Amino acid sequence: MFHKVNTPLFLAPQVGVTESPFRRICRKFGADVVLTEFVSADRICRGHRDIRTLKFNEDERPIGAQIFGSDPKIMVEAATWIEHNLSPDFIDINFGCPSKTVVKSNGGSACLRDLTLVENIIKSVVQAISLPVTVKIRSGWDESSRDPVGIALRCQEAGAKFLTLHARSRSQRFGGKADWDEIAKVVENLEIPVIGNGDVKSGEDAVKMKRDTNCAGIMIARGSHGNPWIFREARAALDGTPLPLIPTVKDKYDTLEKHINYALEFREDEAITMRHIKKHLCWYTAGIRNGKRVREELNTIHSLSTAREKLKYFFERELGSSPK
Ligand SMILES: Cc1cc2nc3c(=O)[nH]c(=O)nc-3n(C[C@H](O)[C@H](O)[C@H](O)COP(=O)(O)O)c2cc1C
User: Fold this and answer.
1) Which residues are CB-contacts of 58 (< 8 A; sequence separation ≥ 6)?
2) Topology annotation, domain 9-239
3) Domain 249-319 belongs to what architecture?
4) Tens digits of residue pLDDT in 207-243
5) 35 CA from centroid of ligand 1 (Å)
């Protein structure tokens, strides 16, 4: 994946956001690699093997399935099951999630408090499966134990094929700024490819991150919300080719409709689709006149067909004609 494209662009794993329909949309607009949102290894091993968030379409490849957990044996069982039953392109281990529920069970960023455990988890999974194993880390558990280079070296030693650094500590959650100098230091000290992550919101940011850190790839999360076009913008900016036109209101409507169709195909149920897609629908209206009003309306609607009607009317009015 690193020799095919210069500085591949990754759609970041995001709970409740990066389900198959959105991943497919982002792939179409230039994301080179996508990941599933994280899934608890424990849940997989307890028989919840129908976890929908792990399912993907062939057009999403290359795709990584992300798991979290703190017990090496359970992580091995989950990774083995995923390899045999879903066969993604790689398995990514999450050592970055700051959420209380995940941390309470010692998963995600909580593992960063015990680097021997981190190493054991990676080594065990690497030995058990033939798919590449990758990791996503934060810079540390808290400010006093912040040591991205030390953590990254342990991950590399344990057999990670590449590593993503979200350059914030767990205690920062999403506050402050991601420290790109830390990404640069990790790049300098590691032999495996390092993916930079944190605060890339435009093509210009992507170029700046590449220049400042020399990272092998760039991962984007929040910058993709309502803006899957960020990937083609970042690609053009990185390659020095002419920047694509900014998406028009019509582009937004067409993409939103395609997203709904993918989501219906994926969920096979209108009410459930509506629950999962509502945030995306709101994000697509951001930055458009009267968007706030339509978002307020969408938040009170439970029926997908009513939401679709409202959005059609909203976009038609903005275009002064039918968006179709
Ligand atoms: C809604 C949301 C859900 C997330 N879920 C995950 C997840 O499942 N796994 C993971 O490794 N990181 C998760 N993250 C963190 C992102 O992958 C990323 O590291 C972080 O948002 C920083 O990147 P950004 O500045 O481009 O948003 C999540 C972030 C957000 C905003």
Assistant:
1) none
2) TIM Barrel (3.20.20)
3) Orthogonal Bundle (1.10)
4) 999 999 999 999 999 999 999 999 999 999 999 999 9
5) 11
Whether 323 is in the pocket of ligand 1, judged by its Cβ within 6 Å, is no
Whether the CB of 71 sits within 6 Å of ligand 1: no
Q: Rounded distance, CA 233 to CA 85, Å?
A: 35
Atom of ligand 1 nearest to the CA of 12: 17
pTM: 0.96
Q: pLDDT per residue over 183-214, tens digit each? A: 999 999 999 999 999 999 999 999 999 999 99
Domain assignments of the chain as residue spans, ordered by start: 9-239, 249-319
Q: What are φ and ψ of residue 201, in 5° steps? A: -120, 0
Kind and range of the H or E run holding 27:
helix 20-28
Count CB neighbours of 102 within 10 A. 22
Q: What is the CB neighbour count within 10 angstroms for residue 46?
A: 10
